[in-house]
Specification:
By secondary structure, this protein is α/β, with parallel strands linked by helices. It has helices spanning 2-11, 20-52, 60-63, 83-89, 98-103, 111-162, 170-214, 216-261, 265-270, 274-326, 334-375, 433-441, 465-471, 486-491, 499-508, 512-516, 535-549, 565-578, 591-596, 614-620, 622-632; strands at 396-406, 409-420, 424-429, 450-455, 458-459, 472-476, 484-485, 525-526, 553-557, 583-587, 599-604, 607-612.
Length: 650
Amino acid sequence: MPTTNNSLRRLIPKRSWGSGPGVGVVIWTLLACLALLYALTLTTLTVDLLVTRGRMVTPLPEAFDLLLGEEYNGPRTGDLGLLPTALHYGRSLAWSWLPKTIAHFPIFWRTGTALPTLILGLLLSLLVVLWALSQAKYHSAVAARKQATWLRSAIHRQTLRLGPSDDTDGRYNTALQLFTSDTEQVRDSLTSWRAGLVRGALLVPLLIGIVLAIDWRLALQCLIPAAACWWVYRHEKERRVREQQLANAHVESEVQFLAEGLRKTRLVRGFNIEDFQQQKFQQHLERLNRESINVRRQERFLFATGGTLLLGGVLLIVMLIGLRIVAPAGSIPASSGATLLIALGLLAHELPRLERVLASRSIMLLAADRIYRYLDEIPEVGQAVGAKFIEPVSRSITFESVTCRKADRIVLDKLDLKIQARKQIALVALDPGLPRLVAHLLPRFIEPSEGRILFDSEDIAWGTLESIRAETVFVSGNDPALIGTVAENLICGESRFKLQDATEAAKLVHAHNFISRLPQGYETVLGDHGESLTPGQAFRLGLARAALRNPAVLIIEEPHVFLDDDTKAMIDDAYQRLAQNRTLIFLPARLSTVKRCDQVVLLHEGKVAAIGSHSQLRKDSDLYRHWDYICFNSFRQKPAADEVPPLPPA
């Protein structure tokens, strides 16, 4: 409960009610309440005018003294319009304003002009009610849309903060679920909840006040039985719903049993037990029919119970009001009775609506709670206080007793590894998650549980993230193009790079040719609503983006897709160019890439199992020969024998 209340305070802070769309919901709903009050007033006057037909029992000059001494020169007998109503109701404190108002407007002095005016005013007031309620819901939708926009922005920022620490798609899938369905659920629920809560908080007390103001004794006589009928109906409905759910569960169980029988055909025919199986099938089929009939019976009984209680409550209220209207002593006017009946009807309509609104609160807060728990997650990787600039790697990268845990499982177990700078290294393993995990440690996408990683002699845990990631760039062949132009994909908004620099980087990795052939060249828009690139083109675009930044360490995860011979040749030449005065670390998908590396690091069970060249490891390591066989043996059809097959993440 405390967590839910906290989510509600964060989702709808108090200040949101006093400004912008929040205050608009309150103002428009208040206007709707005032218009409804005006409409009920006109309804009372209209019904009374239809009953009296503008005629009086008391002579006008004597009775008209009640109109605060106003002089009236109109007809003394016959059709007097609303004057009889004004004289009758004017004795009440709540209607004390009516006589003077009627006396000032001659249009109300005759029924022929008063009745159309009242009906027109009633229609206009009802239109105002509907318009004001629609405006309140619109402002509630605007407020909910603003909140949903903020939530989506916050989820996006949080995903960027947390994303690098996720070497699978788990966090992305979570963020996608929150970004789409959960945020949309919050928006829809918040729209109806805010508007419905304000509507119920203002309209229900208004209607109760009107009912009590007309005749509080009669109001209580009507409200108490109505509340009792409603309570009985709710209690019976909950009981019947539970019984119906149980019956549905029995039906589902029988259906599953019958469906399972369809899978046992070979067993039944093999043992020649068709008659036995048919007998069992018929027994369960009959039970299914009985349970289905029971479900329908529960539905009919609930409908009949609700209808009976509703009809009985309405008849009881109508009878109570009718008896008070026709009673000779202490009766109420027919117009007041009609208004009371209308107000009770509106109240009966608003209370279930308010109940549904309050019930939707839990659904809204469950989705909001999931979102806020995600937003409150602390990134695994953070910048240390007093972090310093880390110089580009010039000598070596060293892993000292590096241990990584996932859940309760040790993935890297005191890993010791030294990589010489300006070399080409391949990280391989039977488990494809191990090389990816080691590669993610270098730009500090994730942090080791124990141990440290040194660039030359500097512990990167004490370096600034900006300096580390500027000189340690990770390129994945599985990364899609960013939404935007080709130039924007390369420059990424960094003012220090110009289009000429991007062009030179594209030429370096053989991306310039295919970019030039795009419809608008470097201004071609990529993404879901733009041009699509082949996997080889997208990979070279990623290499160009990395080459433009000229990092000291370049980590390359090759795409696990089929590449044609021309693309392979261009990529190999790009590797040769990128390797100049730079450390290249490969997560290879092609045998040619493994062979070109100075060293191949074989990882197994969280440790370094072997290090050496491809040819050396093939001679000395059984484990490496096994890895080489399952990845590159010639009996595989797709992908080609030069490529590692796609493997599931760890």
